[in-house]
Amino acid sequence: MVKNMIMKKTKTFSALLLGMILFMTSCESPEDNISAPTYALIGIAAQFADESISTQQFTPKQQPPFGDTIRIQFPRYFPAGSSTPIDISNMRITATIPVNVSIRPKLTVMDLNVANTIEVINSDGTIDKHVIIGEIEK
């Protein structure tokens, strides 16, 4: 009777162990979605933080992928045809990025008279550093 009980427990333990081994080895990791972009700043634009001035967006002349420095071009006078020099000290920055890519610090209002450094954190964990600066055309 005791021998029977030990055999029964051994069979139960063996079955559970086999089940756990099968469960652990049957799990597989999902494949990478190679069609989804995993990195890159797709686009960037600046507009006046005070929308009563204008809602026009200014973009860099360079095309993505952007290098280390992103120069956003502005006309010398704004609105066009006026003699009012443009003020780029209070510009709202927006960016277009793929899913699972983030930017730090968060894009807000920036003074584009000085260099502003941002980091683009790609979905694979790599970090691209960019410097954003305004460039007034002469």
UniProtKB/TrEMBL annotation:
Domain DUF5018 intervals: 16-137
Keyword Glycoprotein among record annotations: no
Record has Signal as a keyword: yes
Pfam families in alphabetical order: DUF5018
UniProt entry keywords in alphabetical sequence: Signal
UniProt signal peptide: 1-29
InterPro entries according to UniProt: DUF5018 (IPR032186)
Name recorded for this polypeptide: DUF5018 domain-containing protein
